[in-house]
């Protein structure tokens, strides 16, 4: 009746532990008995030759194609690498172009919860997919969250602007990607893991006549740069200190 259930009597608990230890130690990911078919080099010993070589090793990427392949295309630069992969830093010899390095300001998303985004969309009059009737609103904009269609909206311009404002004020994480495709009438939101990201300059989306700001001008202004330069003589704890938080507050 009151005895503790002992899983050790039914299965050997060391099998999983030893399997993980073996895989991490050798880099051969998979069963020890099937070492020939398992993926090699999944875990590597971190290079500690110099501090900079350690940093370089941590940002290295690998393309799992046989080094003796005759195809030249996987080794060449591609348009989609722009801003994400360093165009120069790659080894010479057989791994040339297959081993790449992330560019300096490139980062990889860790993933965030989608629930707050869905809740916000519903409060902003998003019609969830279950209630949507295509015949009633044929021109509604579809909303996708991590590739799955979650609903439709009738005023995408204001919705996108509001969600961007939330992101710029740090109410939703900065790593959430917002993509509006006007021609296909789609608004795509991505908050999943493993996306390669890079910083962008924010530009004005439309003319603001009363302030004399034209569409397409940078949101980052010379006055902000001057305030950042003046920060050198200001105590970081002071209210006058502009800093990174100042840029965030300005919505840059």
UniProtKB/TrEMBL annotation:
Example GO biological process: DNA-templated transcription
PANTHER family linked to this entry: DNA-DIRECTED RNA POLYMERASE I SUBUNIT 2
Gene3D superfamilies: 3.90.1100.10
UniProt keyword annotations, A-Z: DNA-directed RNA polymerase, Nucleotidyltransferase, Transcription, Transferase
Coiled coil spans: none
Residue ranges constituting the RNA polymerase Rpb2 domain according to the UniProt record: 44-108, 143-204
A Pfam family reported for this protein in Swiss-Prot or TrEMBL: RNA_pol_Rpb2_4
Domain of life: Eukaryota
Gene Ontology MF term list: DNA binding; DNA-directed RNA polymerase activity; ribonucleoside binding
Assigned EC number: 2.7.7.6
One cellular-component annotation, GO: DNA-directed RNA polymerase complex
Family statement: Belongs to the RNA polymerase beta chain family.
Protein name: DNA-directed RNA polymerase
Enzyme class: transferase
